[in-house]
Write a structure and sequence with these properties.
Pfam families: DUF2512 (PF10710). It is a single chain. This protein is mainly alpha-helical. The chain has one domain. It is built from 4 helices and no strands. α1 packs across α2, α1 runs antiparallel to α4 and α3 crosses α4. The longest helix is centred in the middle third of the chain and has 26 residues.
């Protein structure tokens, strides 16, 4: 259940950023943007949040998520939209998502990766 809440929060964060930048500023279709958001969340949650964050720290995991998100956006957009997106748009989107990831990693590290369960209040 804890993973579900983390995935929902991350999906909302990524989708809002991508909707604003890709759909709002670059006029890409909203449906494709949501599909792209789901791909990004799936990839970066497994690799960055559950993998890299577990064995390193927030700085390394945030940088990894920045790279993962940038290249995933740039490489998956032609599949989802049928046309590519500018690398700059992918990087700016990933940079803004990276700011959110910094705080999201604190949530994940304290709630999901912490082996000491918190008492029920």
């Amino acid at each position: 259940m804890r993973h579900l809440s983390a995935i929902v929060i991350k999906t909302a964060m990524v989708a809002l950023v991508l909707w604003f930048i890709l759909s709002g500023l670059y006029n890409y279709p909203i449906g494709g943007t949501f599909v792209l958001s789901l791909f990004i969340v799936g990839i970066s949650y497994l690799i960055g949040d559950l993998g890299i964050l577990r064995i390193s720290n927030n700085i390394i995991a945030t940088i990894a998520d920045l790279a993962i998100t940038t290249f995933a956006l740039w490489l998956l957009a032609p599949i989802v939209y049928g046309v590519g997106i500018p690398f700059g748009a992918a990087f700016i989107s990933a940079l803004i998502i990276g700011v959110g990831e910094w705080f999201f990693h604190k949530f994940v590290a304290n709630g999901l990766l912490n082996n000491n369960p918190s008492p029920i209040s």
